[in-house]
Amino acid sequence: GTRPLWESPMALFLIVLIAASLCVVASGAVLVVAWSSDGAELGMLAAFAMSVSVLPLVHGLTTPGVLYEQNAATMSSVMLALPWASIAVAPLVAPRSSLGRWVSRRWKPWVSLHLVLLLGLAAGLLVRPSMLPAPQFGAASSVVVACLSLVVCGALSIRHLRLSWISGSVRPLMVAVGFAFIGASGLVWVARAPFTAGFWLAHLFDIVGVLGLAIGAFIAYRQDRTFTEIVRPLVANEPLSAFELGLEPLVHRFVAMLETKDVITRDHVVRTAAHAIRVGEHLRLPGVEIHRLGLAALLHDLGKLSIPDEILNKPGKLDAREFEIVKAHTIAGQALVAQSTVLADIGPIVRGHHER
Prior knowledge:
mainly alpha; 17 helices
């Protein structure tokens, strides 16, 4: 509708100031975790969340009738928020594309440049509130920008829903819901005037979305930080494909033991898990089967922990006795995963991975 629901500039100023400040803090916390753990996808998510926090903060600060008179920055800042944020996460929409692979290897300069330009834009709007024209509610250009931003947010929401489905974890689900709410907030431009019910609802969607995305990402990545280090070669090529397998501590310990035993084997199982998951997705297997397949691929050579180092690392050809010891690693691997009721199900795959 076009009728104001609650026309209060001071309320808008206070609500947005408090909420956007909280969102900036939450986004900053995610960025710190990303930087310390060298998490490419997490860093881009943090840049996205920061964009839809800082520019809405400018939107609140420049509310006419409080600190500023009538100005263009109030609307231009919030209009730019979603498109600018979408640039930060564009590589994640197609992670296997040339851009996605390139940025995943150079994510820190990418995120740094994005945030420097973001802060420069925010400062410019605060110093010169009329430096950019104010968009109009219901204008064709405003609606197009809002819809394109919704498409990006929708794609990333679906991506994390898929990860939640494969892993059986609620952590990616929080990120998915966050993207959905943020994308929906852009539809405020379909409205005809400020302070309508849709106007206030869009602000609520943005606040809930940013906090949900930031908190969900922080929890998910913080808890799996050790595993991030283990599967770095995999994460660099396909962010999160095998990241959220719902791995229990025993899996972390097994893979860490493999790394200590033989780095070559550790890297091999990581690559195998990456290919197995992609094959499972290509075959459109159910999520639970992709989960099982990924775990089995990651742990298929676990039995090599039982092979003496002098045999495992022997540079020449194995003799008959040594070859029999190596062949027994499939049986040893099944025995190791049988220690866990969660992993026992993949035992037959581990046992039979050399049969054909």
